[in-house]
Amino acid sequence: MDASVQLSILEFRARQAVVSLGSRIQQGVPWKDLNMDCANVTRAHIEVFALQTFLSHISATGDAALKRILNKLCTLVYQPPVIIK
Known about the structure:
Blueprint: H1 3-26, H2 35-60, H3 64-78
């Protein structure tokens, strides 16, 4: 539940998505067949940006009540999925 760990994981995912897309481009895959790869890169970078924005707003606020609310919202949005076995 540590935000810095969550951010690191999302950044790693974004880097991997770019590397995968670059690899497919170098293999000569036509642009028309790269739609899902481009969407994955976009989605991964949006998630990094959104979490960074959450974290910067949380750290910038001086209002303790607002900070608690933003922390709860951030946890709700970025909590790891529950895996039921």
